[in-house]
Design a protein that fits this description.
The protein is mainly alpha-helical and about 350 residues long. It has 12 helices and 7 strands. Adenosine-5'-tetraphosphate (AQP) binds next to helix 1. The site of adenosine-5'-tetraphosphate (AQP) has 20 residues, from helix 1.
Length: about 350
């Protein structure tokens, strides 16, 4: 390896010692095993994926043992195109490297290439309860407009596969956006139940959710989350949006009444745009509020567009560069899968032993 440069941006989490910085949820890890994943449900991720998840992943890889996964099996829980899936998995892996994931420090792989995820998922299915799965709001949201008879079982079982993803590596810290909070709680319950019934096997994973930017909202509706699978193209900024598209989407972004550029519960749209601005420029929201004190929404939106364009430019060129060398990307994913398999295989040996899957 060694052909990929380090991420174009490093965030100020670096050199902060071996503990999660203040503002993150519980935990004080010196050195943890980190696991997280992203679904290949689009060509590239959106800005919400980056701010809510990837930028924490990039920072964590400096001091922790990290496993990052393109969770292609998860993407089968909603309708998919078999002709596109493989390509999207590759593009999503390239997006992670372009965002700053360094395959020399982090294990990067495709979920479906490590069969232990599905094996453990079945075992954990037998440890999970219908009641707890039925309470998952993401399942309720995604199945709301479907007839009961046509709701895919995969959508229902999604959080169990997610628990298997993390527990197969005995993951301790799970950096995710706020929408995954409830799934993390379920994962913790499953781990605790397994440990109680079969003996201490899994660490109980802790969520690692940023204090700022954990839920980036849609540009066209600040009451809804920025979302890949929405049918409203102006809800999001794709990581590879060209400058003219960024300018158009930001110009059309919903604002609040008044003209002051300030964050607050009465200004959900401007608060969201300020959060994005702060994240892509590594500045505090208060500094941006001060910069626009005597200016209106027009100037603010122009400043935000240019900040986004500066931020996304390096991503776009690295992403294309990585896709241009498919052999190198294959090497990264092959070696990632081999390392992941080694670890997951060991976990499965103890799981099988503990639950009695053996000839005796
Ligand atoms: N709007 C968001 N704000 C902050 N974080 C977000 N994440 C997703 N949306 C936001 C975080 O990104 C990581 C990868 O997400 P995923 O691919 O697993 O998909 P998702 O959480 O179901 O949401 P998406 O990206 O909008 O995809 P679809 O529409 O396919 O469901 C996760 O850590 C997630 O929390």
């Amino acid at each position: 390896m060694g052909l990929y440069r380090r991420g174009s941006r490093s965030h100020d989490f670096e050199n902060k010692g071996r503990r999660p910085q203040a503002g993150f949820e519980k935990g004080s890890w010196e050195m943890a095993r980190v696991f997280s994943g992203v679904q290949p449900t689009a060509e590239v991720p959106h800005l919400g994926n980056y701010i809510g998840a990837f930028r924490q992943w990039v920072a964590l890889q400096d001091q922790h043992e990290c496993f990052f996964c393109v969770v292609d099996l998860h993407s089968l829980t909603v309708p998919w195109d078999p002709k596109l899936l493989g390509q999207r998995s590759r593009q999503t892996a390239a997006s992670l490297i372009a965002s700053g994931i360094d395959p020399e420090r982090s294990v990067l792989f495709l979920q479906s290439e490590v069969a232990e995820h599905t094996e453990l998922s079945w075992i954990l299915t037998c440890v999970s309860r219908m009641g707890e799965l039925s309470r998952m709001t993401q399942f309720k949201d995604k199945s709301r407009n479907l007839e009961r008879d046509s709701i895919g079982t995969g959508l229902y079982m999604y959080p169990v596969l997610m628990a298997a993803d993390v527990l197969a590596y005995r993951g301790e810290l799970v950096p995710v956006g706020d929408d995954q909070r409830q799934h993390l709680e379920l994962m913790r319950n499953i781990a605790e139940r397994f440990n109680r019934d079969f003996g201490e096997t899994f660490p109980v994973p802790e969520p690692y959710i940023p204090a700022e930017g954990a839920r980036i909202m849609a540009l066209d509706d600040p009451t809804r989350k920025m979302d890949k699978s929405s049918d409203r193209p102006n809800n999001l900024i794709w990581m590879n949006d060209p400058p003219e598209v960024v300018r158009r989407k930001i110009a059309r972004a919903v604002t609040d009444s008044g003209r002051e550029v300030t964050a607050g519960s009465d200004k959900p749209a401007i608060t969201n745009l300020l959060t994005i601005y702060a994240a892509v420029t590594d500045r505090p929201v208060a500094a941006i509020e001060r910069e626009y004190e005597d200016k209106g929404y027009g100037d603010f939106k122009m400043g935000l567009s240019e900040a986004l364009i500066d931020f996304l430019g390096p991503f776009r060129s690295r992403y294309l560069e990585i896709l241009d060398d498919p052999g190198q990307l294959d090497k990264v994913l092959d070696s990632g899968a081999a390392r992941a398999k080694e670890v997951a295989h060991q976990t499965m040996q103890s799981v099988r032993e503990r639950i009695g899957l053996r000839r005796s």
